[in-house]
């Protein structure tokens, strides 16, 4: 008899929650990233192979980032926008790489999921879920899912292995950020099963020209305050661009804190990044979100979304509100009062 490890015990519990179901809805965060997509594909494989369950993947927001669209195409999965389906028609519901009530999940709060698997700090609503596996120190949910696949003895085909490798790589910035031993072990085990050429094509997916226009806006409008840099993204079509701009700006020499922001449908979206050990970006994101918004994340990366009240939606009211958020960010990072300096000299024609 094989030894009963912790992974096997977890897998048995997951199977017991799935057992008897014929359909499973797998909910990803809004504007899902590669880690969410890979984790959802892995859970689908497990539910399908072990319990014969038909799975549907869904998410709020949009998937606009070229790399993520290329990943979906390669995986052959077609997640549906959550507003186009009725979650109550599925026997079971799971959330991966996010948690109920987190603000970045569009599952109706009245629907309690049966399964939550994630690597963000645990949220109160998660505690009442029948099956939870929250490992906040893991760099990626893809790493957690690999442990389930391994415990289940499932042969991981190249497409899924490639997705999981990409999920781990992108959430940990190539194992350089928020990485544990488990992430490295998962990466080393999965990499030989992955298709490096396919991964290369996904990572270097062709970018639309609008991407470069947004990028030019970011670079032209980024302002340095001491060790912090602040940039708007406008127009903002999807919050994904904020994360991308924030990752890029953290590479500016002398900068250890980044805030990127933009407005979509009367919500202010904020992306934070830091290379400092403290304070945690997640803590600042929660503070900026206040009572009306949602904020959270990890030590090095975090995000917030804040609803704009009618007087803050346009013109000077909006500018004042955003200046207030930036001011609180600069205070929290110890850069309040530092002179504002543009990132780039204005270009001369
Ligand atoms: Mn993740």
Topology:
Layout: H1 6-18, E1 23-28, H2 34-51, E2 54-59, H3 66-75, E3 80-81, E4 92-96, E5 115-118, E6 131-134, H4 141-152, H5 158-171, H6 181-190, H7 196-203, H8 209-221, E7 223-225, E8 228-232, H9 240-249, E9 257-264, E10 267-274, H10 281-289, E11 294-297, E12 301-307, H11 315-332, E13 340-342
Parallel strand pairs: 1-2, 1-4, 2-3, 4-5, 5-6, 8-9
Antiparallel strand pairs: 7-8, 7-13, 9-10, 10-12, 11-12
Helix pairs in contact: 1-4, 2-4, 2-5, 3-7, 4-5, 4-6, 5-6
Manganese (II) ion (MN) binds at residues 35, 97, 119, 140-141, 171.
Give a verbal description of the structure:
This protein is α/β, with parallel strands linked by helices and 349 residues long. It has 2 domains: 6-203, inorganic pyrophosphatase (n-terminal core) (Alpha-Beta Complex), CATH 3.90.1640; 211-342, Diaminopimelate Epimerase, Chain A, domain 1 (Roll), CATH 3.10.310. It is built from 11 helices and 13 strands. The protein has helices at 6-18, 34-51, 66-75, 141-152, 158-171, 181-190, 196-203, 209-221, 240-249, 281-289, 315-332, and strands at 23-28, 54-59, 80-81, 92-96, 115-118, 131-134, 223-225, 228-232, 257-264, 267-274, 294-297, 301-307, 340-342. The strands form 2 sheets. Strands 11-12-10-9-8-7-13 form a 7-stranded mixed sheet, sandwiched between helices. The protein has a 6-stranded parallel sheet with strand order 3-2-1-4-5-6, with helices on one face. Strand 1, helix 2 (34-51) and strand 2 (54-59) form a beta-alpha-beta unit. Helix 2 (34-51) packs antiparallel against helix 5 (158-171) and helix 4 runs antiparallel to helix 5 (158-171). It is globular and about 60 Å long. The mean pLDDT is 95. The structure holds manganese (II) ion.
